[in-house]
Amino acid sequence: MDASFDDQKPIFIQIKEKIEDQIVNGYLQEDEKIPSTTQMVDFYKVNHLTISKGMNLLADEGVIYKKRGVGMFVAEGAQRKVKQQRKASFADDYVRPMMQEAEKLGLSEDEVNHLIQQVRRGDRG
Amino acid sequence: MNTKVDVRDVSLNYRKMNVIDQVSFTMETGKTYGLIGRNGAGKTTLLSLLTGFRLPDAGDIQVNGEPLFENRMMMPKVNLIYPADYADESDNAKSYFETAEKYRPHFDRAYAEELAEKFGFPVKKPINKLSTGMQSAFNATLGLAARTEVTLFDEVYNGMDAPTREAFYQEFVREQERHPRIMVLSTHLVSEMDYLFDHVFMLHNQKLIADAPTDELQSRAFTVTGGQALVDEVTKQMAVIHEEELGGMKRAVIYDANNDVKQKEAAEAGLGIGAVTLQDLFIYLTGGGNGHE
């Protein structure tokens, strides 16, 4: 739950991802109330409109739902849903940038695969 | 109750100098407006016009369709909080709160006392015996607890230490949620307070040079980074407001309402794209050496 942001993506997307992280990591369970907008404004030092924008995206995707006058809650099956979405974008988010860097450095696919094996075995930090 | 403030073509002269030059904007309940500008840009003057303390030389200011200046109905609804000179003020905060309760219909004394404790200033000590930072915290308390429909804070943080400022920001956000009003925060310390602003008014050389929702204003600006020649080539037709070079690399800041198209162009040319903070945008747009002091 890092309170810092990078400048490569809009902040509301990063807010959305931070809430998703809490769901994927199990800090926020199904039917649990997520922090209020005001709490998130304090924590992240981000405008409430930006927080709402991120939360609305999650609500549209059915990851969280609103209880009138109470707040936002984690939807049933939210963790599974977020994991599925992240799997779908794994190639774009992680593999492609890795391949681009590998190409820049002149690493072959075999070398990259070898590195993946090494990391997996714990030979490398 | 919803309040709307209309500022239309307002100008003000002072000793033959133009101090506010044809400024127009609107404000509505529930929004927090950041009024930013360098020293001498006209922030305090604009706030005193918004309080109805002075009459503009041209244009007019209306609240819910009624003229603001010397309007008895409006005066109790508008509250300007500014770094007042308390050198001769031997009353204490407690008696101020008692007075405020009489003149401000929505003043919440219990909340004011709660804030005094939170901000850490004594309520029984004469105001002129408090430090500058504590006097500022006292001012901030009057502004928050009065719950006036239009609340204007002029450089309220003067002398406050960092923990008190942080406590003020927290209470500010809570108050705006519990009792929505028109809140204006004037400042030149943008980076610390930018997340409080829903909307930004940027004053420069007596004119309003930006009037937009904060996220929209910020999204008009972006940085492009890459090899110097490539950056020069790609940004030839773009509105560059700032540029710097480092070891053959160049970063240019683009400010353009048509930012989506321009950003795409730059990304396709292979340049790195980044965001610009409100503080940096403020510096680039007003940093032309025309500020005062």
Automatic annotation (TrEMBL), chain A:
| Residue ranges of every copy of the HTH gntR-type domain listed in the record | 9-77
Q: Which UniProt keywords apply?
A: DNA-binding, Transcription, Transcription regulation
Gene3D superfamilies, per the entry: Winged helix-like DNA-binding domain superfamily/Winged helix DNA-binding domain
Give the matching SMART domains: HTH_GNTR
| GO molecular function annotations of the record | DNA binding; DNA-binding transcription factor activity
Name the Pfam families on file.
Answer: GntR (PF00392)
The record's annotation in InterPro entries points to:
Tscrpt_reg_HTH_GntR, WH-like_DNA-bd_sf, WH_DNA-bd_sf
SUPFAM superfamilies found in the cross-reference section: Winged helix' DNA-binding domain
Report which residue ranges the record marks as coiled coil.
Answer: none
Q: What is this protein called?
A: GntR family transcriptional regulator
Native source species? Salsuginibacillus halophilus
The major lineage groups are: Bacteria, Bacillati, Bacillota, Bacilli, Bacillales
TrEMBL record, chain B:
Which SUPFAM superfamilies does the entry mention? P-loop containing nucleoside triphosphate hydrolases
Which GO MF term does the entry hold, naming one? Answer: ATP binding
Q: Which residues form the ABC transporter domain?
A: 5-230
For this UniProt record, give its keywords in alphabetical order, as a comma-separated list. ATP-binding, Nucleotide-binding
UniProt-listed Pfam families = ABC_tran
- Record's protein name: ABC-2 type transport system ATP-binding protein
> In which organism is this protein found?
Salsuginibacillus halophilus
